[in-house]
Amino acid sequence: MASSSSSTAPPAEAGAGAPKVRKVTVTAADAGQRIDNFLLKRLSGVPRSHVYRLLRSGQVRVDGGRAKPERKLALGEEVRIPPVRTASRDEPVRAPDAVLNKLREAVVYEDADYLALCKPAGLAAHGGTGVAYGVIEAARGWGKYEFLELAHRLDRDTSGVLLLAKSRPALLRAQSALREGLARKRYFALLVGRLQGGARDVDAALVKSRLGSGERFVQVDEEDGKPSRSRFTPVTHYRDATLCEVEIFSGRTHQIRVHALALGHPVAGDRKYGTREEQKTLRDKGLRRMFLHSHFLELPAAGDFRKLTLSAPMTDELREFLDKLR
Questions:
Q1: Is residue 323 annotated as a catalytic residue, yes or no?
Q2: Residues 30, 36, 155, 157: which is the catalytic one?
């Protein structure tokens, strides 16, 4: 049984404000969700590593039994959440009104099941370590939806179509299509230098690692990496760059950025995978962000869900930069 002095949990402070054991009954909105994701949502402000330690040590119980992170919850089950003092206040962080209003203007599609936004570059998809809020927290801040979850992710510096689900069945449908490679995803990417020839596929397995600072870094590793394939199709050639449409057939972290690097033409404005020297020409022309934009997402029909086709035109800042290159 957990106690406030356990080595795997932050010490609870004595007094009325000390955290207590919580017992939460799984509702229809949470049924089918993994226990780790269920906890991460409810323990906002607690590091992911600590949440997984709670699971491994058996402090989290489902109907009295231990649960592995991948264990899926069923309607009516009771989840015991041990005392944990969060690093932030218990109530959800509310994004500034300016951000809420900017996202309202960024809606590109909405129906009874989904909400799709053209995510601005520089705004994370979700909050996390060092990030107080993201798109999902801001959209929940509108106070319109009983259920709202990210169906997928975009890098913080990538703009474009971001899909949010308004029900558990809609979320599972989207996640299944994306996981099984049934969804179609296309991006606009400006690559450094002139990419010669026509369309080409990059089929290179990718593996994630962490730098000493804790920052994520992805590289090609055919032995230990996960299969990943991208198709780069040149659209317009400029003197110092090539605009490509990129279709991805898998959804790995930083996939387009690392595959572009494997071609010898990193994504313009990419500070992680491109060197300062090769980026200098485009930076001097006024590029102030990574030139990567998700412009098309399509989910096939499934069960009662019709085919869903979403698009988000290239943002004004990216179009204006291409005008400079011309």
A1: no
A2: 155
